[in-house]
Structure formats: structure tokens, C-alpha cells
């Protein structure tokens, strides 16, 4: 949550916040806060305002192994959503998915109620890499690796940033590969492969920034982030503000 929102919930006036910020009297994990827009989670960080520790709000962070057939949305009038996979006591209006996977895409999805975090993780400025396992309906060759490295250009002229393509197996009617991209354009991976003449028949996200899909999680299952992963979240929080 933004620091100013959190402090406002403690009935601290904006003027008092600004003064305390200037005087370095707002400490996040013992370091002076650098901005009132800083993203803070008092479940993960110690927040002290003028010598008083603020309890604030502990956010929820989940990893979900998204199955095919569900949409990445909070609600949908026709289709099941990723939220429907969670038990009612975890579902909340505040919870949302960080980034979007297509209905038929499976794999790693982070869910949180920490609003600014999604913005940070998805903002191009933060260069969060995403890796996918992909199956396509044709032959992949070293030329494709080169094209992805140089930056695929879509038919409409949009140029993608360089991507890393590793071919795992190649055949005339089916190839398996892994691809890492640093952007999040709409249907990006599918469009990139279409641009080189093959169609994606299966797509699974296995990595999102520092987070790796837990191989113990079956499709449709979720879990809370573990301590190590929460430390990674802290790293992203520290970049904010
Ligand atoms: N790229 C796609 O084309 N689809 C996804 O779901 C994710 C990335």
C-alpha cells in the first residue's frame, strides 16, 4: 500500500506526513522513507512514524498455477475466473492478478491485494522477465533464435524488445522451446511466433521476474508465497517511490 494511504488510515494529516518525511522521521526497515508514494507492507517491513511503530495492513501474496479454460479477471459473466479457484475466505475485492495470461495459457500467476505492486512488476521500467515453455506447430531453427534476439516486428510494425529463444526439440510439425521476454504486449508470445510463421499450440509461464512456478503446485492449485519469495517482494517494494 502507498505510504501516504497507510499513514492516512492512522489519522495522520498530510501536512504531518510531509514534515516527518523531510525530517527523516518515517523509517521503513530502519531507513528513512524516500517518498510518500513508496509502497510499504507492514507485514513484511517495519514502519516507524516519529518513533511509533505502525501496524498498518498486511497484504496477501499468492502463487497460482493457472489451468487452461479460466480467464485472468476478477469476474466474468460467462467464464470461470482465476478467482473462482480460491476458497471464499481468501477471495477479496482487493485481490487481483499481476499481469494477464490468455484463457488457454497455463502457469505462473501472482495474485495480491497490494495495488501498487502490480504496477511496479508490470512497468517496463522494472524489466521484469517472463519465461514460457512453448509448443509450436512447425519447425524452429537457429534463424528463429536470431530473429527473436534482434527483436521481432509484428505485421502492424510494432517492434518487440530482444527475446531469448531456446529450442528444446525441433520437428517439421512440432517444436518445443522456451522463450524469455521482458515486455507484456497483448498476446505477445503468440504474435511473435506467428510473425515467424508458426502457431503456438501450448503456452505455459514458468517464470515471472524472480518467481518460479512451484513444480509441486498442480494446475488449479495455489499457495501463499514462502519466506524466500516474500523477501523478493520486499526487494520490489524497496524499488518503489
Ligand atoms: N503471451 C501470449 O501470447 N499469451 C499469454 O497468455 C502470455 C504471453
Could you explain how this protein is built, in words?
The protein has 241 residues and is α+β, with helices and mostly antiparallel strands. Helix content is 22%, strand content 25%. The strands form two sheets. Strands 5, 6, 7, 8, 9, 10, 11, 12 and 13 form a nine-stranded mixed β-sheet that branches. A four-stranded antiparallel β-sheet has the order 2-1-3-4. The termini are close together. It binds uracil (URA). It holds the Pfam family PseudoU_synth_2. Its EC number is 5.4.99.-.
Main traits of this protein?
single chain, 241 residues, alpha+beta, Structural Genomics Hypothetical 15.5 Kd Protein In mrcA-pckA Intergenic Region, Chain A, Alpha-Beta Plaits, 3 domains, 9-stranded mixed β-sheet, 6 helices, 25% strand, binds uracil
Bound molecules: uracil
Could you say what the CATH architecture of the largest domain is? 2-Layer Sandwich
Percentage of residues assigned to helices: 10-25%
Shape: elongated
Strand content: 25-35%
CATH class of the largest domain: Alpha Beta
Uncertain runs: none
Number of helices in the DSSP assignment? 6
How many β-strand runs?
Answer: 13
